[in-house]
Amino acid sequence: MSDSSLPKDHYVIIALDFADAESALTFVRQLKPKYCALKVGFELFVAAGPALVETLVSQGFRVFLDLKFHDIPNTVASACAAASKLGVWMVNIHASGGPKMITAAREALDCQATGPAPLLIAVTVLTSMDQDTLHQIGVARKIPEVVDHWATMAADHGCDGVVCSAQEVAAIRAQNRAEFLTVTPGIRLPEDAKDDQHRIFTPEQAQTVGVSHIVVGRPITCSQDPQAALMKFYTAFTSA
Ligand code: C5P
User: Fold this and answer.
1) Is the beta carbon of 30 within 6 A of some atom in ligand 1?
2) Does the residue 225 lie in any domain?
3) Best mutation site among 215, 216, 223, 233 for ligand 1, i.e. most ligand atoms within 8 A of its Cβ?
4) Which entry of 68, 100, 142, 194 is annotated as an active-site residue?
5) pTM, entire model
6) Any long-range contacts for 226-230 (C-beta under 8 Å, 24+ apart)?
7) Per-residue pLDDT tens over the stretch 70-114
8) Is residue 3 part of a domain?
9) CATH number, domain at 110?
10) Among the residues of 86-225, which ranges form H helices?
């Protein structure tokens, strides 16, 4: 059963995990912007820089700049302002930077944007971290408690949503306003290889628990027909 309180637009965010601009642009030429957004992360951004982001934006794609800013509030605000000038659709920061950093990011995005400000998304506890790792860095609380605490703190200080695992979505949605976005990787169709993902949700399951946008990489980027692969995810996610 779908959650009717979900926000209206749901996208498949394709993780552009490519090593250079040429590979990314060759891949992107096979896609229609209407059905997807594109996630540019560290690898591609360090290799190809802001020029690639501007090219993707000029081609009509929504771009999620996945650089997970985490620094003093002034520096994060400046980075967000620079991202906003590139015309990106979504940027992210680490919730663990705290309320002042989050507020500075929000204010910088709001005052730079000529059109709608980029969406501000928080990363809570990275899914690569386990309870032992949290303990090692001095955090004694259980992972779900930390995720809920940081998600609510992010919402209270101006974030539009969080990146989280599908398993965390129900709790996050229960504690936050209906429009609060959940952006979720670890998505596979039943016939796909799991690759190195451990806890897989299908697009239908993601929709059922209330995920706003799914992040999908290899099942689309490694496909012989990326637009057809994208449409399988899009259809399954939006018509569940
Ligand atoms: O190829 P695949 O669909 O596994 O790619 C998922 C994308 O989502 C990658 O860019 C990966 O870095 C990112 N991601 C993830 N798990 C997280 C956070 C981000 O898989 N917890």
Assistant:
1) no
2) yes
3) 215
4) 68
5) 0.94
6) 226/27, 226/30, 226/31, 227/30, 227/31, 227/32, 230/12, 230/14, 230/31, 230/35, 230/36
7) 999 999 999 999 999 999 999 999 999 999 999 999 999 999 767
8) no
9) 3.20.20.70
10) 99-112, 131-136, 143-156, 166-175, 203-209, 218-221
